[in-house]
Amino acid sequence: MDLYTKELIISFLLALFPLFIWQLFYLLHYIYQFQWVKKWMFAVFPLLSIILCMTFPIALIEPLILDLRRIPLILGTLYGGYRVGFLLLIVIISLHYLFGGEAFYNSYFILLLTAVCAGLLSRYYVKVSLKKKILISSSLILLSLVVFPTQTLVSSGVMTNIRIEHLLINVISMVIFTVLAEVIMFNFDLLQKSMKAQKLEVASNLAASISHEIGNPLTATRGFIQLLSDEKISFETRERYLKIAAQELDQAIDTINDYLIFANPAYKEKEEVFIFKELKHVVEVLSPLAKFNNVKINTSLIGNEDYYVLGERKKFNQCLLNFVKNGIESMPKGGELQICLNSEGASTINLSIKDEGIGMSKQQMNRLGEPYFTTKENGTGLGLMVAYSVIKSMGGEIDVQSELGKGTCISINLPQYFHPVSRVN
Question: Mean pLDDT score of the chain, rounded to an integer?
Answer without folding.
Answer: 77
